[in-house]
Amino acid sequence: MLAWVCLYRLPHLYQFTVLREAPVDGRGAQMVGDGFLSAFCTPPPTSSSVEALKMLMRSTGYGDYVSYIQELGGWELLTSPEGHYEGVTLLARAMVIKNCWHNRPIFGFLIRILQERDHKNRLTAFMFLTELLRCPDVAATVDEVTVHILANWFQCEEPAIVKLLLRVVETFAKHGNMVQQFRILEPYVLGCCYSLDDDIVMETFTVLKCLVEHLTWKHSSSFLTQLTFMLGPLFEEESEHLRLMAFEIYGALLAKVKRTVLVFPLKHQVLNLIVLLVLHLEDANVNVAQICRPALCHTATILGWSRLKAIFAEKDVWTILRALLKQEGNRALWFLKQCLALFKSPQAPIRQTAVRFAGQIIQTLDAEEANEIEEVYTALGYMREDPDSMVSCLAAQTLYILEAKEKLLVNPPTSCFCSRRPRKTYS
């Protein structure tokens, strides 16, 4: 009978022992409103409550767990002001490893605590909860109400809690059978990519890499497609680490794409990033360049470009660009717009190649298409003031050549282009 009473009370004692902040100047722990706990609080030091927990756990058959924590130094960490949170994490992780019977009841306690937005021990609760969710039995208890309680915490202003929530999302994906729960959290995860806190952004991208690895197009096509579009601006990030992670995620995404799922709008975005991938073969970060080549090859595979795939696999940037323009000439204006976006790259070599390729594309356009590129002429005018001398020189030369061609089109030997008006010059 005593054993059953102890088993019933164990979650309450965990709440008392673990869900408290680090001790302050020998003062006792915060009281929890449970009669059973009053026997330990008058008020006791933290070490006393920990010893009580260890004694209770031994009497209820958890002796091996107590010893396991002792070997890892967890009990000492729990009573340390500096190591308290590490101790909390270690205890929770050990409970999952040992598959403790009380994992689910303790998880229920934690969720009830987190319904209070101003609970003073919310961070400790999240740390414990994040570990417990690794247990399949605990994850199986997560219903829609629980997910919404967790989702509301994404709005909090505590980076440590948001990072733990991102780890919770990662755990959901790893379980593989929590598709519905994950869908509720999808917009919150993508929203973290735009956080003003750099640490949260980096944590989000670390989690996104894991999500891409574990999610499937069958169950998460909408999220993965949104992610593909969201990555676009990040390929030109000045932060080398963030730029590399963006390419890593996109490369992993492409590797999961089959021709059967390559439909609008995903196909549009894949095509929209081709010139970018080619130009980043010369990225300052060699790791980015190494990602771009297999990404280009897979792009060719899912688009059915067998000839271009062979070129993508081994040729240099300019051979690839010429072959791409030759085979996909009907997309010349689209490629030109992609070059225009790359005029803003923080890397001068990429801006140089973008300007040169833009000039080559424009020379292949017919009169009707040439009427649609006023924006490119304007951009080239600005590029003449680029801080990189090579870029500014290329922009000036490209404008000179294009304006010379423009004059020929305005005064052709036949009447084919009589209706064309002269284009404004930029000299």
Automatic annotation (TrEMBL):
Q: Which Pfam families match?
A: HEAT_MROH2B_C
Say which species the protein is native to. Answer: Acinonyx jubatus (Cheetah)
Superkingdom of this protein's organism: Eukaryota
The record's listing under InterPro entries reads: ARM-like, ARM-type_fold, HEAT_Maestro, Maestro_heat-like_prot
Residue spans making up a coiled coil are none
Concerning SUPFAM superfamilies, the annotation shows: ARM repeat (SSF48371)
Q: What protein does this entry describe?
A: Maestro heat-like repeat-containing protein family member 7 isoform X1
Where does the Maestro/Maestro-like HEAT-repeats domain start and stop, copy by copy?
A: 147-402
